[in-house]
Design brief:
Chain lengths: ~525, ~475
């Protein structure tokens, strides 16, 4: 085993239950008044759907999200059949039709909540690898692997780390232990505890998270080695010390969900603390302009990069751009300007607030941009010297793996981390008091619904569940490191490019009609 | 500095509750009665607060319309008595093309006059039919035209309906030899056109005409629908005439800056006649978007016409075809045919039918239109639910068949167009395009599904075996 492949200590997964008393499951179980509280169901159920305390004899509300539903029928512990009073009824949860959308289906949300709670892959039959969007990742599959390729090794022996600095320019060789790091979310758009929780999780996972464009709260300092400082067009909260704290500076030129438009923090969210951090006026909307008014060419960009490198001799530079037709040229330009990481952000990515017209219509989905950039960098002969990171519409572990096989080194994850904190994707992050679930809100009440430990543990749990999926995939492909997967698009198939007979061998793309 | 074009929007509440997406379901019998932790009191959006008043007034409860879907009442009720469902009325709203979410967004824009903004990423399908299989492009490589958010107020959205002069000719003393026709410029690439089959009462027409005047755009109107009440707005009307009746409406023709004739045999002669009588007027010919449209536009471009006005069906489909093509393809066909024959510069093209979202305006222009005309939208701005009851002679659920306050209605239309104008500027800013006239036919500022698949997936996956978009 190579030195690089040495076992890393994996962070601990611990149960991090939902903040809400009634969880949402795929199935609902109702207990009628004929229940005599005999306790048989509690004894039978191995999943803990029927909780019962020793010194409390009354029946409790079933923990519905643990129930595996009709798949349990054949088991001799199927509570519905075994209940002597026939007091239990099981059905699909009708509330699911009001949850989720084409990209993040209700089942994908439920599964990620479960992963975040337990750190394990869900036991309940949920489709969490594929969304309902009918294209892109949802139609791409890994080919059926060769059975003799299978490697019988332990999860801990599989290397998930990726290198961020491949230039060999004398700057630190930084690697992160999972092929993902956290996307930029600004102080101001998000509850502080959620942000610090993300930083804490990044430390536990030995990866990174990003400040977004909102300044660098003091609470980040203990995790400074795991926090990327974002320098975006409004330059909010960018100071010399925040460049000095950080291992990586990210220049955000554009955001996939609203490319070409800049950022916009609505006045409601500009509280005194946020205003102080950003050095602005309380209650007044904040615009990040587009583009950087000091950057109108690659040379201008290089000047930016050089400044930052000069200020902090150990910092790595990441350049975040969106995905227009010429994204490949931009990537190469960034490389020659001295960037270590090119981060391309696809158009279907998340945001705290963006015009609907921008989210859907400007720039290309990330699935197209990754092979485009990967190929172009290869042709230029610089692919091995740059770390290509993809984001924007990468929802789950398999999306990450597919993005890597298409040519990325790793992915940046935003929405999934928020989903781990029990986001329901209602999309009201920006209005009034902000997120009703206390994630994307700085409201004096709503902004305190989350504890740092809860946030950190849920995110760690989710990534550890994802790691299991990646490990299972790499084992099947006979790989010991996620780095071997980079650019292996020969391992992928796209359903629309297969003959009908071949296509039948793969899981079809879900095509439900969703009301959005 | 020249005066900037701005559409003044003003919050204008609907008269009826808009159909909401969610309906909250309570199983009251399980309620503990007074657990003192009732989630209804804690609702972040206060949707239950006024509920008692609604109940006592025998109205429908407000939470049918205002639930924001945060799931907190469902998840926090001590007895778990809440559930939620999709409002059945929302489910049956509109049709396949005019989906409920589109109507919802349009109502919001007519109400607030603002761009719809939301959090979380895009929620829809990867690709879909019609305009949803193309993306507009933006450039990371900055162009000189690109001034982002601070330059947006300088983005020009004007287009012309009047005749174009291909090249100017000069006399020996350098005085102008060509005659320059009067210019009919519209500040946004958006005209109005009353919907063909839906309600078009005097109130609706008057409201639309008022809005057209406020914004500075023009409205097509069938000569037969013209009433005296519309006279003050005649400068913003384009009467639609036929070769048979054009002589009967001289008074109206005299007042309006432009006249449209329905395409028919002999239309060229009538055009010549009208040109002789009113050399200063802009002349348009209207026709359906059908298989003949491209050839007819070639023929007409050589006649004395200034603009062509095509109307697809309400879903943006080709008219009179068993296998209809979508407006996007039809615009390309007509535009490219004219380009090939070097006639495109001579005339302006306006397309109507199926323009349902702000992005459709930008995309239609990219395909090759000079401007679009909106029809159904005019009613949707006035709360129309597209239930099509009016087409069956039944009453309108939002009372558009009765007389209503046309100032209120005009403001709703102004709001909606204002929001669209802002969105057009947003996407143009992102594209680095400073004039809507330069966006016309500029497919280089767009990306198409077929091309993206072929260029980026082709080298990896080979040949595509599924025809079309691969979505049902």
């Amino acid at each position: 085993m190579s030195k690089e492949n040495k076992r890393r200590k994996l962070p601990e997964t611990r149960l991090a239950p939902s903040r809400f008393r009634n969880t949402i499951g795929k199935y609902t179980i109702k207990r009628s008044s004929s229940c005599t509280s005999c306790g048989l169901c509690a004894e039978l159920c191995p999943y803990g759907v029927h909780p019962r305390y020793k010194n409390f004899g009354r029946p409790l509300r079933p923990v519905e999200h643990k129930c595996i539903g009709f798949a349990c029928r054949s088991n001799d512990y199927y509570c519905i059949d075994r209940c002597p009073e026939q007091a239990l009824t099981l059905r699909l949860n009708p509330v699911l039709e009001t949850l989720g959308d084409y990209r993040w289906t209700a089942e994908m949300l439920l599964a990620h909540w479960e992963m975040a709670e337990t750190g394990q892959l869900p036991v309940v039959g949920l489709e969490y690898d594929l969304g309902n969007s009918g294209g892109g990742f949802d139609k791409i599959r890994f080919q059926h692997p060769q059975p003799d390729a299978y490697l019988d090794i332990d999860d801990a022996d599989i290397d998930m780390s990726i290198e961020l600095n491949k230039r060999g320019d004398g700057r630190p060789r930084r690697s992160i232990s999972i092929p993902c790091y956290g996307g930029g979310m600004s102080y101001g758009s998000m509850a502080l505890s959620a942000l610090v929780g993300r930083a804490k999780a990044a430390k536990a996972l030995d990866t990174l998270t990003c400040t977004g464009e909102g300044g660098y709260p003091q609470e980040f300092v203990p995790y400074a080695d795991y926090v990327i400082t974002q320098v975006a067009t409004g330059l909010f909260g960018v100071r010399e010390e925040t460049i000095l704290y950080t291992p990586v500076v990210e220049f955000k030129y554009a955001q996939g969900a609203k490319p070409g438009l800049g950022g916009h923090l609505l006045g409601d969210k500009v509280t005194p603390e946020v205003a102080a951090m950003r050095e602005t006026v309380v209650g007044s909307s904040l615009f990040s302009p587009f583009p950087f008014h000091s950057v109108y060419s690659v040379e201008d960009h290089k000047k930016h990069v050089d400044w930052v490198k000069e200020i902090n001799p150990d910092v790595l530079v990441s350049v975040k751009v969106s995905t227009p037709t010429d994204v490949d040229m931009v990537a190469v330009g960034s490389y020659y300007a001295g960037a270590h990481i090119v981060h391309i952000d696809g158009s279907y990515g998340g945001t705290g607030a963006a015009p609907d017209i921008a989210k859907k219509n400007i720039a290309m989905p990330i699935e197209y941009a990754i092979p485009k950039v990967h190929q172009f960098l290869k042709e230029e002969g610089v692919r091995d010297e740059i770390c290509l990171i993809a984001s924007g519409g990468i929802r789950n572990a398999m999306d990450v793996a597919k993005a890597i096989a298409l040519g990325a080194d790793g992915a940046v994850i935003g929405t999934a981390e928020i989903v781990a904190l029990e986001c329901v994707r209602c999309g009201n992050c920006e209005s009034g008091r902000g997120c009703a679930r206390g994630i994307a809100s700085t409201d004096e009440e709503l902004g305190h619904m989350i504890s740092e430990d809860y946030a950190a543990q849920r995110i760690v749990n989710m990534y550890m569940a994802w790691r299991k999926q990646w490990c299972a995939l790499l084992r099947e492909l006979g790989m010991r490191s996620i780095k071997e997967l980079v650019g292996r698009s020969d391992l992928l198939v796209h359903l629309d490019y297969l003959e009908e007979t071949e296509r039948a061998g793969y899981k079809p793309a879900p095509q439900q009609h969703v009301i959005i | 500095m020249p005066k900037k074009f701005h559409i003044h929007t003003r919050e204008t509440a609907p008269r009826f509750h808009p159909v909401g997406k969610y309906a909250t379901v309570e199983f009251r019998e399980n309620c503990a009665g007074s657990c003192r932790m009732c989630v209804k009191k804690k609702c972040v959006y206060n949707i239950f607060t006024e509920n008692v008043l609604h109940m006592s007034a025998m109205q429908e409860p407000e939470y049918l319309y205002t639930c924001m879907s945060c799931f907190r009442c469902i998840q926090e009720c001590t007895k778990g008595i809440f559930s939620r469902t999709i409002n059945p009325d929302y489910r049956s709203l509109g049709d396949d093309y005019w989906r409920s979410d589109i109507l919802h967004r349009l109502w919001y824009q007519a109400h607030m006059g603002k761009i719809p903004v939301s959090g979380a990423g895009y929620r829809g399908p990867f690709v879909a039919t019609g305009f949803d299989s193309m993306w507009t492009d933006m450039s990371e490589i900055v162009r000189p035209t690109r001034d982002g958010i601070h330059g947006r107020e300088y983005i020009n959205t004007c287009f012309e309906l009047s005749r174009r002069v291909p090249t100017l000719k000069f006399n020996e003393d350098m005085s102008l030899a060509s005659s320059v026709p009067s210019i009919l410029e519209v500040p946004i690439p958006l005209l109005f056109q009353p919907p063909a089959d839906l309600i078009a009462t005097d109130s609706v027409l008057l409201a639309a005409a008022k809005a057209a005047q406020t914004i500075g755009t023009l409205m097509f109107i069938d000569a037969g629908d013209y009433t005296e009440a519309l006279a003050p707005y005649a400068q913003h009307l384009i009467p639609r005439l036929t070769v048979d009746n054009y002589k009967d409406h001289r008074a109206l023709t005299g007042q309006s800056p432009a006249v449209e004739l329905a395409d028919a045999p002999g239309v060229e002669n009538v055009l010549a006649d009208l040109r002789g009588r009113h050399p200063e007027k802009t002349l348009l010919v209207g026709m359906p978007v059908d298989a003949r449209a491209a050839d007819r536009s070639l023929a007409l471009a050589q006649a004395d016409v200034d603009s062509l006005h095509f109307t697809a069906d309400n879903h943006g489909k080709e008219v009179g075809s068993d296998n209809p093509r979508f407006l996007k393809e039809m615009i390309r066909e007509i535009h490219l045919k004219l380009v090939e024959q070097s006639l495109r510069q001579k005339i302006n093209l306006v397309f109507a039918g199926g323009i349902a979202m702000a992005e459709h305006v930008a995309k239609a222009v990219i395909c090759g239109a000079d401007g679009v005309a909106i029809d159904t939208i005019l009613l949707v701005a006035l709360e129309c639910r597209l239930c099509y009851r009016c087409t069956k002679g039944l009453s309108c659920p939002v009372a558009l068949d009765e007389e209503f306050d046309t100032d209120w209605a005009a403001q709703r239309i102004v709001n909606l167009v204002g929001a669209w104008h802002s969105q057009l500027i947003e996407v143009m800013g992102a594209m680095g395009i400073r004039e809507v006239r330069r966006l016309r036919g500029e497919v280089g500022r767009s990306m198409w599904f077929e091309d993206l698949e072929r260029e980026h997936f082709g080298p990896i996956f080979g040949e595509r075996k599924v025809a079309g978009l691969g979505v049902s």
